[in-house]
């Protein structure tokens, strides 16, 4: 229905919707108000579609993530280059972009080195206004106004909508600039302008899971996101692990600690969430005092100064201590839930302590480390009294972390296991499938589900672990299920035959390390399978896609992130430094703007300091994935459908006013 079809409405139709229309009339009490709103909404429908950014598997790499948000995956530099063309030197463009990304820090350097500060302010303010005019052109004045800081909103609006090339306005325009400088507000005004440019360069941010682990800044990423505004997140298995730890699952807590020790990442634990590691350190030093714990030495970041030998040895002892506790706790949980079919992951009872070997998949392997003083061969999964006391202390530390709780609440408020946005289906890892490509049934609670309903029921279960009104028995199962989501064979966040943690630590033969992927990872190359999944979720449109993360794309070995004849895109390009050698790059950003899709491939980020001082940027290359034959408008998006619905309702209200069904009122 549109405004041109108002005469096709009938009194019967309007009478049927009368209750809704009377509520609507409270906001639009007469023909004039309703007509004005329809005009406004029709205008919005014809604006270009806003730019969406998709990223996945951030793994705590705060500095790199913050930079691609600040530079909009290179989009800001492209805008600046378009605006100034060949009229500005490349070095000046780099410095202007550096200022936009890090205005406070860049201004500090400029103030100490620039001989003509007033001239710098004049040139820079004029340039920033032109850039802001460009990035704000696809938005309504109302939306731009909401993005402006209150203290400068009026002035920025005046500058945005006046042209200094107009002779009648040039003096007015220049006088505003001059006054900003003479009143000492130039720095604050520049910072405000740069922040607005950043904010308007990304209309919606989609994060396809795995914010946590490996890198040191997951807590900083979540601090940033909780105040970001227009973002959504589809949870990954690393996120589920931390959410399970926050819910009180001891297996999840042990895994969180182990992964942190493995990558020498104490920052997130201690500085980020205030987790007290001292009891673990004390226990590890007492239990493994003379043990070199060589297989448990942490993986170190080559770009950082390595810890001293004493610190490394302590970390290895803590790492071994929590790993053994993890395997014990997991064995207990596996026995509690035999329906999870994870008995093959119980390996402590397969160890021959006299020979120093273990049986895995019917084969005997020599262990790289067989010194396990806390394991009783007769009851290998029983915690010692000291281990039990340690687990209780660590559990308490996670339960009282208010910042972790706040971040989990943020993940729930802005996230889900899947999302559908503008004909794109987003989920982190997998859709469990049978070998023939049909949807696989997976048990959740007492029932089995598949497809969209599997995602829906799993999401409800995850939320129930944090609801105070959840019955105790269901709450325990929901809390325990977080661990299954982390590493279970049919977990829609993992979907591999096993997580070979034990083997990777203690068996040299890499063949036994392999984790066989579920059928989805093979079948997603089939366009028909992609279409089946899209149909299952009710995703429509001529250009519909599945977008995933989870499994790093080995771009350096020639693997393509585009699969299923363009129906599916995998955007885990390896943000985490631990994956750079695997992927050959340092992450992807998928950008969806009014012209279509672009996949931006990033090289490793140096540092924010380097970007500020030298004007360096993440080196990125762009691959055109899919271009639209026409420029997409707001009317082509989910928002457009919503706005069209509002127009239809207002059109009915106009009919009701004009036919006396509802009486007009003055405001």
Describe the structure in your own words.
Helix 5 crosses helix 6 and helix 6 packs across helix 27. A hairpin with a 2-residue loop joins strand 5 and strand 6. With 667 residues, this protein is α/β, with parallel strands linked by helices. Helix content is 49%, strand content 10%. The model has no long low-confidence stretch (mean pLDDT 89). A 7-stranded mixed β-sheet has the order 7-3-2-1-15-16-17.
Features:
667 residues; seven-stranded mixed β-sheet; alpha/beta; five-stranded mixed β-sheet; 28 helices; globular
Layout of helices and strands, plus pairs?
Blueprint: H1 11-16, H2 18-27, H3 31-45, E1 52-55, H4 62-70, H5 75-84, H6 90-101, H7 103-113, H8 117-135, H9 141-147, H10 153-160, H11 167-182, H12 186-201, E2 204-207, H13 218-226, E3 231-234, H14 237-247, H15 250-262, H16 266-273, H17 278-287, H18 309-336, E4 351-352, E5 357-360, E6 363-366, H19 385-399, H20 402-414, E7 415-416, E8 418-421, E9 424-427, E10 442-444, E11 447-449, H21 451-464, H22 472-487, H23 501-506, H24 520-523, H25 527-536, E12 545-548, E13 562-563, E14 568-570, H26 580-583, E15 588-593, E16 596-602, H27 608-614, E17 620-627, H28 638-658
Parallel strand pairs: 1-2, 2-3, 3-7, 9-12, 12-14
Antiparallel strand pairs: 1-15, 4-5, 5-6, 8-9, 10-11, 13-14, 15-16, 16-17
């Amino acid at each position: 229905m549109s405004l041109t079809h108002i005469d096709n409405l009938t009194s019967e139709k309007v009478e049927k919707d009368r209750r809704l229309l009377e509520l609507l009339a409270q906001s639009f009490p007469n023909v004039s108000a309703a007509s004005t709103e329809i005009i406004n909404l029709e205008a919005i429908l014809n604006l270009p579609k806003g730019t969406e950014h998709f990223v996945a598997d951030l793994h705590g790499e705060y500095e790199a993530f913050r930079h691609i948000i600040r530079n909009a995956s290179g989009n800001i530099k492209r805008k600046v280059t378009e605006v100034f063309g060949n009229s500005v030197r490349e070095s000046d463009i780099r410095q202007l972009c550096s200022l936009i990304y890090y205005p406070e820090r860049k201004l500090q350097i400029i103030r100490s080195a620039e001989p003509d500060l007033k001239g710098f302010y004049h040139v820079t303010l004029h340039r920033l206004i032109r850039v802001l005019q460009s990035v704000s052109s696809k938005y309504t004045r109302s939306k731009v106004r909401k993005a402006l800081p209150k203290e400068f909103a009026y002035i920025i609006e005046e500058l945005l909508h006046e042209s200094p090339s107009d002779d009648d306005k040039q003096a007015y325009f220049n006088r505003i600039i001059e006054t900003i400088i003479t009143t000492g507000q130039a720095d604050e005004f520049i910072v405000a302008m740069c922040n607005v440019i950043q904010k308007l360069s990304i209309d919606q941010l989609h994060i396809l899971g795995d914010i946590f682990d490996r890198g040191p800044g997951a807590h900083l990423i979540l601090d940033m996101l909780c105040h970001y505004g227009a973002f959504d997140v589809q949870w990954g298995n690393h996120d589920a692990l931390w959410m399970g730890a926050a819910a009180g699952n001891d297996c999840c807590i042990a895994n969180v600690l182990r992964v942190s020790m493995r990558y020498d990442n104490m920052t997130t634990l201690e500085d980020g969430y205030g987790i007290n590691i001292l009891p673990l350190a004390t226990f590890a030093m007492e239990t493994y005092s003379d043990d070199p714990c060589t297989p448990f030495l942490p993986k170190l970041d080559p770009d950082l100064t390595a810890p001293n030998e004493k610190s490394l040895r302590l970390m290895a002892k803590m790492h071994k201590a929590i790993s053994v506790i993890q395997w014990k706790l997991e064995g207990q949980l596996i026995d509690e839930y035999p329906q999870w079919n994870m008995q093959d992951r119980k390996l402590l009872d397969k160890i021959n302590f006299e020979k120093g070997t273990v049986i895995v998949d019917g084969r005997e392997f020599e262990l790289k480390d067989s010194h396990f003083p806390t394991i009783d061969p007769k009851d290998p999964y029983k915690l010692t009294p000291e281990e039990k006391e340690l687990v209780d202390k660590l559990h308490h530390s996670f339960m009282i972390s208010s910042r972790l709780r706040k971040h989990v609440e943020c993940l729930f408020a802005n996230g889900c296991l899947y999302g559908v946005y503008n004909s794109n289906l987003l989920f982190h890892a997998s859709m469990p499938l049978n070998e023939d490509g049909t949807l696989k049934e997976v048990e959740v609670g007492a029932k089995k589900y598949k497809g969209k309903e599997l995602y829906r029921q799993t999401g409800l279960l995850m939320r129930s672990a944090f609801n105070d009104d959840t019955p105790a028995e269901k709450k325990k199962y929901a809390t325990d299920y977080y661990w299954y989501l982390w590493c279970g064979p049919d977990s829609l966040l993992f979907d591999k035959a096993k997580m070979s943690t034990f083997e990777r630590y203690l068996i040299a033969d890499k063949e036994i390390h392999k984790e066989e992927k579920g059928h989805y990872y093979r079948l997603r190359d089939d366009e028909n399978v992609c279409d089946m999944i899209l149909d299952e979720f009710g995703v429509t449109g001529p250009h519909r896609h599945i977008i995933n993360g989870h499994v790093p794309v080995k771009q350096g070995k020639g693997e393509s992130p585009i699969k299923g004849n363009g129906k599916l895109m995998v955007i885990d390009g390896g943000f985490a430094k631990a994956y750079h050698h695997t992927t050959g790059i340092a992450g992807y950003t998928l950008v969806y703007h009014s012209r279509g899709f672009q996949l931006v491939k990033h090289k490793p980020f140096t540092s924010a300091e380097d970007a500020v001082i030298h004007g360096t940027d993440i080196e990125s290359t762009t691959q055109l994935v899919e271009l639209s034959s026409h420029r997409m408008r707001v009317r082509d998006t989910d928002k457009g459908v919503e706005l069209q619905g509002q127009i239809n309702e207002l059109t009915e209200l106009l009919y009701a006013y004009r036919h006396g069904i509802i009486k007009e009122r003055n405001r």
